[in-house]
Specification:
Blueprint (H helix, E strand, L loop, with lengths): L1 E3 L2 E4 L3 H12 L4 E4 L12 E3 L2 E3 L6 E2 L3 H9 L5 E2 L5 E5 L2 E4 L4 H6 L5 H16 L10 H8 L3 H15 L9 H11 L3 E4 L4 H14 L2 E3 L4 E7 L5 E8 L4 E3 L2 E5 L2 H7 L4 H9 L3 E10 L9 E4 L4 E5 L12 E9 L8 H11 L7 E13 L18 E2 L1 E4 L9 H24 L1
Parallel strand pairs: 1-14, 2-3, 2-15, 3-11, 8-17, 13-21, 15-22
Antiparallel strand pairs: 4-5, 6-10, 7-10, 8-9, 12-13, 13-14, 16-19, 16-20, 17-18, 18-19
Helix pairs in contact: 1-8, 1-12, 2-12, 4-6, 5-7, 6-7, 9-10
């Protein structure tokens, strides 16, 4: 069976939904195909007994591309920014987190000389032109600017929490510094979890006339050979259905793109080069928070993260708490088990086990499809240059942002490119 449309979007995560909405609002007939029964991808939220489980700890960077694109589309982003109750975790002990001049003076995390160096490094980081660091790794930058081991641990922890990456020897310094500067502009935890964004975008897609097809597994992108450049002709589903279209947008990871274009050496190279960024996560719904003022802890000597997201967003029933524990994987830390993460929560919230209502452990969650080991200028896409009419959207695509910022920035770029090319053809 064959069907016709202007644009096929493969993948119904935030990037796929956003590009579908933008293209449909621009006058295109858009069909979105999602292999799962539900939309959202890694933005999917599961509700269990009133507790909202994101896929690990999610934060929206207020100065980033995602907030910009969602704002332009009119997507509500209710929630609050985290604040008080923050600690550094070193050697199973909590120390006040040095977040400003006063807390830096008061903390016992650093000695006197360490406090002076930390203050100097933080001031320098905010003034650094990230683009001037191209070609250096985070580890290389730290070697140049930090002399004390205790300070290096704290600075590395701040890079980890802003980028979700633990492998400082592999990550590009310019990317990490730019992301750190972005994080300092603030983040927001979202009421009800990230499924609110999914619902809003899905509703906008329906209003714009997007045909959304669930449980639709795309088997391949159909193209025809040209001279220098092939040309997209649509997609073929596993059940034999074909959608004819002049434009195909694949919203997924590099391996997803490669699977749809078997034998294509360029996209196979993208998939081979991409090193996924992973984390182990323990999400816990508590009937009561044993220590109401202990809301956040960031590991310095180990790649730990603990945060009570429900203190700042509506994610739990009245009186309850939704707590996220994570271990950033990469470098020397390649795996984690549930007992490890429970032990971290013991430090921040002793007695939490008596109040467990529900919990979930994910040992190897992919948080980003490709560790940015080089400048973002060198990432693929969003236009696939050797296949006319083919575009990619994702957290590994384009010149702007990491994580969901990259996904939505690349979606915005695709919308602009498709509109420009359609105008050029009409002229």
């Amino acid at each position: 069976m064959k069907k016709k449309t202007d644009v096929v979007v493969v993948g119904g995560g935030l990037g796929g939904l956003a590009v579908a909405v933008m293209l449909a609002r621009g006058g295109k007939k858009v069909t979105l195909l999602e292999k799962s029964k539900h939309l959202g991808g890694r933005a999917h939220t599961t509700e269990v007994e009133g507790y909202h489980f994101n896929l690990g700890p999610h934060a929206l960077y207020l100065g980033g591309a995602a907030a910009r694109v969602l704002g332009k589309l009119g997507v509500p982003m209710p929630g609050r920014s985290p604040g008080e109750g923050s600690f550094a975790l070193r050697g199973n002990r909590l120390h006040p987190m040095p977040a400003g001049a006063v807390s830096l003076l008061m903390t016992d995390l650093l000695g006197a000389a360490g406090k002076l160096e930390f203050g100097r490094v933080m001031t320098g980081l905010m003034k650094t032109e990230a683009g001037e660091l191209e070609g250096r790794s985070v580890s290389g930058w730290l070697d140049e600017h930090v002399t004390r081991a205790e300070v290096r641990e704290v600075v590395e922890s701040l890079f980890r929490v802003s980028t979700y990456c633990a492998d400082t020897s592999a990550m590009a310094a310019d990317v990490a510094v730019e992301q750190f500067q972005l994080a300092r502009k603030g983040v927001r935890y979202l009421d009800g979890g990230w499924s609110g964004l999914v619902r809003a975008l899905a509703g906008m897609a329906g209003e714009a006339g997007v045909e959304v097809v669930g449980s639709a597994k795309v088997e391949s992108v159909v193209r025809e050979a040209g001279g220098i450049q092939d040309r997209v002709r649509g997609v073929r589903l596993a059940d034999g259905t074909e959608y004819e279209a002049e434009t195909v947008v694949v919203a997924g990871g590099p391996r997803d793109v490669a699977a749809l274009l078997p034998g294509d050496e360029v996209v196979a190279g993208w998939a081979a080069e991409a090193k996924p960024v992973k984390a182990a996560t323990l999400d816990v719904g508590l009937s009561k928070l044993p220590k109401p003022r202990a809301l956040f802890a960031l590991g310095t000597d180990r790649p730990w993260y603990v945060s009570v997201h429900s203190a700042f967003a509506k994610l739990a029933p009245e009186g309850g708490a939704m707590v996220h524990v994570a271990k950033y994987l990469g470098g020397a830390e390649e795996s984690a088990d549930e007992v490890e993460l429970e032990g971290v929560l013991d430090v921040l919230q002793p007695g939490w086990r008596e109040h467990v209502v529900t919990k979930r452990f994910l040992p190897g969650l992919t948080v980003m499809n490709a560790l940015p080991a080089r400048s973002l200028e060198k990432r693929p896409g969003p236009r696939v240059e050797h296949v006319r009419g083919l575009y990619v959207v994702g957290d590994w695509v384009g010149r702007e942002g990491l994580l969901v910022d990259a996904s939505l920035a690349s979606a915005e770029s695709v919308s602009r490119l498709v509109g420009t090319e359609a105008g050029a053809r009409a002229a």
